[in-house]
Amino acid sequence: MADRPLFKVGITTLVVGVVLCVVGVVTIVYGRTTAEGDRAARSAAPSADSSAAAPAPGQKPARSGDPSTGKWPNAATAGVPQNVRLVESEPIKITEEGAVIEAQDVKGDIVVLANNVTIRNSRITAGGWWGIIQRKEASGLTIENSEIVGNGVKPLEFAILNYGGDITVRGNDIHGMMSAVQTRHGLIEKNYIHDPKEFPGSHVTLIASNEGSPIGLPLTIRGNTLLNPLEQNSCVSVYQDFGLNHDVLVEDNLMAGGGYVMFGGKGKYGTPYNIKFINNVISRRYFPKGGSWGWLATWDARGKGNTFSGNKWEDTGEPVPLPS
């Protein structure tokens, strides 16, 4: 008789366990069905970005914060094309004339020692003084449709540094560096240069010329998106660090940020000449004056051919004046 209550409890526990099991199975089935229904409903519902046009086949989607109009280079139109498959590579030193580096995922830098080299459809992730450098004995380097980015650990001083002759930098996505391009001459066009990374003691200028070309070549900066949310130093700087500057055309770019958006070339080596800032759009997305301090510094109106005209504010379309 003493065993009967234990038997009853055992039967009761068994029945309750079976009931709970059945409820659990029903709950799992119901939960799975409900979750699948929710996912289907979410995929069917329009997203917050559904009003934006879908990227064309083979085109990368735009990122948040990209320029809002199709005219300006952005993440969808600059850099490595979406359909390119990259092959991982160690740092590269190029000594062959006319060499073509294509579809490489380079972990480290590229040093160019030969003429007429082309780097295209590649990604360069680097830290140190440069991502790509054209040495003084080389000329004719073309860098196009590539991504140059700092590794985020070691500061990348210059994404592209040119000590040599002519250079073309076109259609690239450059970011995560302290400075993007430093050269005295060449063509820099249709690039998306954005989100520089500030390290202690860094000097952030997206595109800089430290003196005029010693071999008589002009510098043209045209059709780029240049976004510098930091309070230093500029989007485009025409300096006189090492000599008189001259023959620089900065035309039809979208620019925002830095201490000043632009530096105009005035300095200790004399009166700069043929410095032209024409038909650029200056954005106030980061600072009310375009840059933290203003939109233009070191402008010298006395120089022959120096021109500041047709520049407009992005938000109003009103002319950007010379600073008073």
From TrEMBL:
Residues 39-80 are annotated as: Disordered. It comes from Streptosporangium carneum. Residues 42-57 have a biased composition (Low complexity). Coiled coil: none annotated. This is Right handed beta helix domain-containing protein. Keywords: Membrane, Transmembrane, Transmembrane helix. InterPro entries: PbH1, Pectin_lyas_fold, Pectin_lyase_fold/virulence. SUPFAM superfamilies: Pectin lyase-like. Signal peptide: none annotated. The chain crosses the membrane at residues 6-30.
